[in-house]
Amino acid sequence: MEKIISLIATLRWQDVIEISLLSYILFRFYVLFRGTNAFRVLIGLTVLWFFQQVAVSIGLTVTTGWSRQLLSWGPLIIIVIFRNEIRTVLQASHLKALLWDVSSKTVFSTIEIIVESVNEMAARKCGALIVFPGKDDVEELIQKGISWKGDISKEMILSIFWPDNPVHDGAAIVQGDQVVQVSAILPLSRRDDIPTYYGTRHRAALGLAEVSDALILAVSEERGDVVVARDGQLKVVKQKRKLEQILQEHKGVASKKGRELIKEKLMVAAAALFCVIFITGVWFSVSRGGDTLLTLESPVVYLKRDPSMEIVQTSVNSVSLELEGSGALIKSIKPNQVQVKFDLSKSKAGPNSFTITRESISLPPGIVLKRVTPTVVEVDLDVLIKKELPVQIDWVGRLPDHFILTETDIEPETVTVIGGKRILENISTLYTEKVPLNNLEVQGTITVNLALTPASLKIAPDSKEKVTITYLTKLRNQ
Amino acid sequence: MNYRTFMVLFSSIHLFLLLPSAVQSQSEPNGTATGDVVLVQAQMCEDIQGQTPQNATTVFSIERRKAICFTTFDPVPVETDIYHHWFHRDRPSARIKLSLKPPRWSTYSSIQFRAQDIGPWRVEITDANGQILQILRFSITE
């Protein structure tokens, strides 16, 4: 429990935002793709991921590799196989539906399509007869038509009852969200009290309504009105909303609406809760896994140094950092993501001591610093000055015994160097690189470089980097 | 006193002759006057014979065992002291006090070599007030 509390205590506001954002994205995926085949495959992949985690934890090497391969291809497989389904979801949804709407595709949409279709046919005075069976089996009451089994769409309904369509005569039977039959023949009513302006289509609608609990919609091609036949009654319905209500009542949607709504809300809430718990778990396992240690040598970076000063010496050039994090995060660390930085803006000439704190180390999110070695870095700063120094030749080797070097001249005799004040205070001579005596002629000229020690010294821009030596040797006077 | 006086054999000889400057070392400055004392000759040499520096040079083989800094002052109005400061690279190695007597005076100091003395050297010749009269530069090699 204490560990959980300590984990939560380490959460930054960025982490809370990240968990919320990822949870919401997952939740939106659920809302948009629920009920689709792609969603079911996604669930399968999630189960596979858990399976892989279990396999990893108990050390099943082959299974781990196999499931990892499958998971790596999973998203691509989903996109390729279910591209049409995904496109349909994304195209059909406007921005608000993509980001916010939680309502699902329900029977209401089917009813809305039918009502829209019926209204359009009525406006066009296109006759139609649509049967919505109730609990009674109507198979034995009607003369079977042509099997259709088409998902309901406005275009399909309009085309079924189009006058030139061979199946437009007869009734279409609707079950669920499908038209299961077309061109079905209904039993005719034998009643005498039916108004004379109703023809065979209305008599057929009434006939089935008399012998079953089915609801039948009839669209008159003479008057363009919509008639509902139910319970042995014919009723003209002029308002769309009223027709929707009648159909909803017949399908039992209205009576179950409250329960369904609550059930649906509970499902959505449960899904949202699951998304938050799942993402939080994944987030903690990835970012706070703490199952991997890494020791990294990180170079020390000094920032905001006064341009008039130079770093003469540092106690270390790099520090050893012991880092902890999940295996995935540790593996993804790049050297430039980890830096030890010191601000030299307030440093003064002379020795400066810096204690390495967590603030002086930049780490990628989710990586925890366990140990740093050393904990203190000494930085010696000095003020840069110019100093003109005489040049001296650093001879090495030896001349033949009977010769002596009698004259040497250097051009230039002095060279100006730039370096730390405290260093240059203790330097009074600039030496050449080592000049071998063994190769000297009787007299001659040599051009040599200067040996800058320490290496932090630099030759001033207006001075020469090489000097010329003119020499003369003579026979030794025994 | 940090100087290697135990390694230094110094002596002064009293010469009343001005010695000709036959050899010029890598040196600066030359013929400097301080007060009434004027340095007219300063050179590194291997030996002194007959009160004259022999084999003036700027390179000494360690096998030669010693280096001599020979200086001549003219005039020397009053009795005074001068110093020869020996430096190996920039580290002081020896400081040798030498007396001058009127009217003119030649004097020298020398060091004995050790194996670790190989490298560049210099001798700063200063008056009693520490003012540098001349610097002689030389090397001890293998």
Summarize the SSE layout with pairings:
The complex is a heterodimer of chains A (478) and B (142).
Chain A: H1 2-9, H2 13-33, H3 37-58, H4 61-81, H5 83-92, H6 95-99, H7 107-124, E1 128-132, E2 146-151, H8 154-160, E3 171-175, E4 178-184, H9 200-211, E5 215-219, E6 226-230, E7 233-237, H10 240-250, H11 253-287, E8 292-303, E9 309-314, E10 318-325, H12 327-331, E11 339-343, E12 350-355, E13 361-362, E14 368-373, E15 376-396, E16 403-411, E17 414-420, H13 421-425, E18 430-436, E19 443-451, E20 458-459, E21 466-475
Parallel strand pairs in A: 1-3, 8-11, 15-18
Antiparallel strand pairs in A: 1-5, 2-4, 3-4, 5-6, 6-7, 8-10, 9-15, 10-14, 11-13, 12-15, 15-17, 16-21, 17-20, 18-19, 19-21
Chain B: E1 8-15, E2 26-28, E3 33-34, E4 37-49, E5 52-56, E6 59-61, E7 66-73, E8 80-88, E9 91-100, E10 105-112, E11 119-127, E12 132-141
Parallel strand pairs in B: 6-12
Antiparallel strand pairs in B: 1-10, 2-12, 3-4, 4-5, 4-7, 7-10, 8-9, 8-11, 11-12
Brief descriptors of the model:
heterodimer; A: 478 residues; YojJ-like (1; RNA Polymerase Alpha Subunit, Chain A, domain 2; 21 strands; 38% helix; B: 142 residues; mainly beta; Immunoglobulin-like; 6-stranded antiparallel beta sheet; disordered N terminus
